[in-house]
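Hey,

The postdoc asked me to send both predictions to you directly instead of through the lab channel. I've kept everything plain text so nothing gets mangled by the mail client. Protein one:
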Amino acid sequence: MAALQAQRNADAVALWRRIVGVAPDDLPANAGLGRWALHQGDLEAAQAHLARVARADSANPRHWIDLALVCQKRRDDQGEEDALFQALKAAPQDLLALLMRGALFERTGRAAAAVDAFIAATLVAPPMDRLSPDLRAPLAHAQACRQAHERRLAEHMDTALAAAYASHAGEDLQRFRLSMDILLGRKRRFDAQPMRYFVPQMAPVEFFDRSMFPWLDDIEAGTASIRDEFLAVLRDDAGFTPYIEYRPDEPVEQWAELNHNPRWSCYHLWKGGLAVPEHVARCPHTMRLLAGSPRPDQPGRTPVALFSLLKPHTAIPPHVGASNARLLCHLPLIIPPRCSFRVGNTVREWEPGRAWVFDDTIEHEARNDSDDLRVILIWDIWHPGLSDAERGMITAMNGALNAFAGADHSFGA
């Protein structure tokens, strides 16, 4: 009986195709035919028509979600994943697409990727009472998965850091312990500035007193040689990359204009805690001078050092950095007129050869309103307010987070 009904449905779809004669570029007709075929149980025809609509109107995430639903019914996991990627490329914060992606990854045994999608869904979801009823159960499941992940992470970190805590027995780690409780969601963070890792009870300072960093004297004195090394690199015009590089399925927020745009570019010397060998080799004097600064040790994240290039008539929008455990230093190298930098309520203009240190977890932005290139050297240092014990614990924490990421999930401080 079921086979007979399926054959009747297929015959009906084939007949309607002949009668209607839908043109490939007639999107409303193709969409209607796809929905009708889905209702009749002809999943192959539904997928063909909805794929045609989605490709033709690719900026509309609804079409891709409809296609993903058909692929799901056909148990076409790859097709569903591809359609959801396109939906999130069009609308990275689409709640339904994120929930479907999490469910797909969970169903296909990709637990870490499922957690990523579910966490993203919980971050963009409205309060449950303002949510469509058919999305409440999937969102509740996403929230439960996120909570379970956070419990696993907390248990892992408590165990992984036990030896490091013991090595600093008797020292004041109250602030670090509070920072871990905040990182792991066990306590609230009231001074919310950094994007990832927050050390509490350190006063936010926009620009630090220059006298706190006497080692800057040698770096400033070497400005000419640092600039010469940069100019030699610039002449070859190789190794420069856009500063902002988000994937197409990630929300870019204020970075849309600069994403993958060389108007703000950089030449990395240290990136993500690792030296870039071919770049370091070309800038030996710069690296010798930077070695005199208190380089932070956060495996996978710091230290960082780079030449930052801002092209004429380009603005870097307001943003904040990842962690107040470290500060950023600027050494201006090439500064045309009408270039400015704001941190919090303080606006300054760069002066070639005069360095400063600031807390990048306070909202900041930069402008080059001139007709020429602006270049500065940027590198990071430990926050001077951290004790040696706290620095050691932060290093240990990042190592533990990296170990957890390798086993289950990506998570950084």
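Protein two:
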Amino acid sequence: MSLRAALLFSTAATFACGANTGGQSAPPKAASGRAPAPTLEVSRQLITPAETTSVSELFERGEARARAGDLLGAAADLDRVYTLDPNGPLAAEALFRAAEAWDLSKDNERALERYEQMARRFPEHALGSQALVRSIRLLCYLERWQRAGELADLFVAREPQPRPFDAIVAHSAKALALVAAGDDAMAMRFIEKGRSIVESGGLDMAGRVPRDLAQLYFALGEVRRVRAERIKFTPLPPNFGQAFEERCQLLLDAQSAYSDTMRAYDSHWTAMAGYRVGELYQSLHADVMRIEPPPAVNSERRRQLFEGAMRLRYAVLLGKAHGMMEHTLSMASRTGERSPWVERAEQAKLSIERAQAEEQKALDRLPYTRTELLAAFDRLAKGQAP
């Protein structure tokens, strides 16, 4: 037989003159009046052209590589342990440690696959609950909201008394799944559950917050963002001033939640939150600029005044959006973050710069001074013709 093919066999079976016993020596026949001799458990062996080792030695080598920082080597060894002996005494821990090594090496897909497999195959193992929590974290990181919500439900069903941060991960994941599905009211209920744990445990002190709170605060920002952008100005509502004030307040509330997300100093969640803040201002600017002129704007002169007044008054929103995108890109450059959110921020920044240039050109074409345009806006705010 060629040594190019890896041969798995039991050491005990090598010396036995019978069938393979799966890693155990064949039990001797009991002599008359005497107890049978105890069986001997021998670690499964692996022979290849390059090495001869056992499953336990392979596990120990994987652990040593992980401690030394050789994450890819550790992941390969620990994966082999599980593949060679998926029902053995080291299988569960090897699978979890392999997932952990892939996780630390930033291979999210391989890590997620193994964490989920661990949670499915070994739910009663001491590491089974942690595998499930880590699966939820990675799913949120990858923005697979629906699956994250499903595993959050499974975690809550399995763990009646979870650790505080694990519960926060589950509640915030469920909230993000509900926001993505359009149910912000139910999402808010899960966010409040998470915030109650934070408050009762004093987990949010001044300064930097634990990373798991970033996920919770981002979910809160998402609920407030959705509610803010639900307020539209076309057709113009009869209580425009009140509607505009309500949207601005929701925008500021969302910005506050996203700012709390950034306090975790996690570059990925910070990029997500930073982009969302800039998007809030950009979206508000786009919506107010769609407002149709009121009936009193019934001449070309008044139409020009209306257009100029609106452009001048709300240009500040584009400025805030641009500043937030620049801040996000600066953070990404400093930390090496290259997620899709950074690409979105880059595209948004270019879009805002084009909009700002077009705004300035439009203002330059109008035959009015800045003072005249601001006076026209004041009259519009009072419901008068400009």
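Summary for protein two, as requested: The radius of gyration is 31 Å.

Thanks,
C.
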